[in-house]
Amino acid sequence: MLCERCKIREANIQYTEVINGVKTEHNFCAQCAKEMDFGPYSAIFDGEFPLAQLLSGLLGGEWPVQKKDRLSQITCPTCGTSYEEFVKNSCFGCADCYTMFDLLIHDNIKQLQGSDSHKGKHPVCQEPLSSKAQAEAVAQEETEQTKSTEEQQIRAWDRKLKEALRTEDYENAAVYRDKIRALREGKEADA
Amino acid sequence: MLKWFEQVQDGGSNIVCSKVRLARNWSEYVFPSRLSDEDSREMLNRLHEGLRDLGDLDGRDYESAYLDELSELDRRALKERRILNASILERKAPMSILITREEDISLVLNGSDHIRIQVWAPGLCLAEALKTADQVDDYVNARFSYAFDDKYGYLTSYPTNVGTGLRATAIVHLPSLSMGKKFPSMLNDMGRIGVSIRGVYGEGRENYGALYEISNQKTMGRTEKELTDLVAKVASQLDEQEKQIREMGLASHRLEMEDEVYKSYGVLRYARRLSMKDAMTFLSQIMSGIADGLVKLQEPCPVFRLMLGIQTANLQKLSDRPLDKGELDMARAAYLRSELPDLTQS
């Protein structure tokens, strides 16, 4: 079948339009399709991120116009991505976007993924502290440890020993008792 | 040191290779699309510093490079070898890669996501590739905390990757199955079971070389193992169907099939100019000829390696000057003349 627009090239794109319940079918060649306006689907013929553009049709297409305008104002405070930008590019700007747009995207993600809850691996190490802050905390702890005298160490173990006795954790209590004894004996030997 | 695609597989299977990819983001930074160049560089430096001893994990040697330090040709060659994807090639922001010498394990940093771990393996090796990717993932995660949500799982730039962040892929050679009338509708039906399938090489609707890539469509709601098992199962079924068709063909038309394979070998061995389409078509014939036991090469040589070798950027790299289309066809023929091993006498 020849393209109905140029009537020269072979038609390889079938376009079905439904306006007010009236369905019309068109057949175009790729070149003519590229020159025409298919709204969010145009990108398919441009070769530019067709999936992202298709998704944006899927992700944002179902709200009434007025509500859509208000929704597009919602912006993620962390990265500045607006809901409008998210719908346009189908791309989150940061982890917080998921929380920020949760109510708006939840159903779409479920539709896209066939599920709305993760099943599978969890991170092995998910510290609430950022790793930079974590590294600083570890470094600080190390400095303090080197600074701390053996007396402080003994007092710390003594506290743990008492806590262990209180909770009737005799195994750990014995460990701390032995540690304190060893350190005291070491001190005496040094003296 | 042999690259993963140079390692020979036992014949008989039409499953050429497998890949597992995990998409991860570091919780400290906004996602790459929103990250400034300055922050990108800072993040990359910190990632490189933290992953300096990644090789200790399994005794491998990793090389690292910032993508803007590589030539355009090198970046395109990495795309041909499936280390980088097309969208990364277009991105202008600072990005880098960590890659083993065998090129089987690679980490693309600050691409579509902060960290993309990718593991390639010859043949059907999805379970092993997942295990390797998992180990690298744990190593990275021990040093960098991930953007993770109890409900949505691993948070990624695109909602198409969220959850496991896993894309399992198998490349399958389907020269006979793909000629069937029902093949296009079968491709469409794949979506119903949660996998997508597409041609690896070709232009428009044409496929060169009959290689098809099968991947999981969805990344959430199933475990990593369930997703890799699904892709492996579909790949195995397609392999089995392809085998059955070829066996039927061999039973009734062995001579014709043998003739096709030998003619293809003859062209690849002696041609002076080869277009991409012709070279891929003839290599595809050799690939099935070897799998069917119709021909045997004197030296072990995976045909997929030759298919990667005849791609444009690789041929340009082998040449000392830029090549136009005609010269590329000549370079492609010359490459195959020198790389295609002799046949064993039958």
Description:
The complex is a heterodimer of chains A (191) and B (346). Chain A is mainly alpha-helical and 191 residues long. Chain A is 57% helix and 7% strand. Chain A is built from ten helices and two strands; from the N terminus they run ββαααααααααα. Chain A has helices spanning 30-35, 43-46, 50-60, 65-72, 83-89, 95-100, 102-113, 131-147, 150-166, 170-190, and strands at residues 13-19, 22-28. In chain A, strands 1-2 form a two-stranded antiparallel sheet. Chain A starts with 12 loop residues before the first strand and ends with a helix. Residues 128-134 and 141-148 of chain A have low confidence and may be disordered. Chain B is 42% helix and 16% strand. Chain B has helices spanning 37-50, 72-80, 86-90, 126-143, 183-189, 224-270, 276-291, 303-309, 312-318, 325-339, and strands at residues 15-24, 62-66, 96-100, 105-109, 115-122, 148-149, 153-154, 166-173, 195-199, 211-216. In chain B, helix 2 (72-80) packs across helix 9 (312-318), helix 6 (224-270) packs across helix 7 (276-291) and helix 7 packs antiparallel against helix 8 (303-309). Classes of the chains: A mainly alpha (191), B alpha+beta (346). At the A-B interface, helix 3, helix 6 and helix 7 of A face helix 4, strand 6 and strand 7 of B.
Characteristic key phrases:
heterodimer; A: 191 residues; two-stranded antiparallel ribbon; rod-shaped; B: 346 residues; alpha+beta; 8-stranded antiparallel beta sheet; two-stranded antiparallel sheet; 10 helices; globular
Question: Layout of SSEs?
Answer:
The complex is a heterodimer of chains A (191) and B (346).
Chain A: E1 13-19, E2 22-28, H1 30-35, H2 43-46, H3 50-60, H4 65-72, H5 83-89, H6 95-100, H7 102-113, H8 131-147, H9 150-166, H10 170-190
Antiparallel strand pairs in A: 1-2
Chain B: E1 15-24, H1 37-50, E2 62-66, H2 72-80, H3 86-90, E3 96-100, E4 105-109, E5 115-122, H4 126-143, E6 148-149, E7 153-154, E8 166-173, H5 183-189, E9 195-199, E10 211-216, H6 224-270, H7 276-291, H8 303-309, H9 312-318, H10 325-339
Antiparallel strand pairs in B: 1-5, 1-8, 2-3, 3-4, 4-5, 6-7, 8-10, 9-10
Helix pairs in contact in B: 2-9, 6-7, 7-8
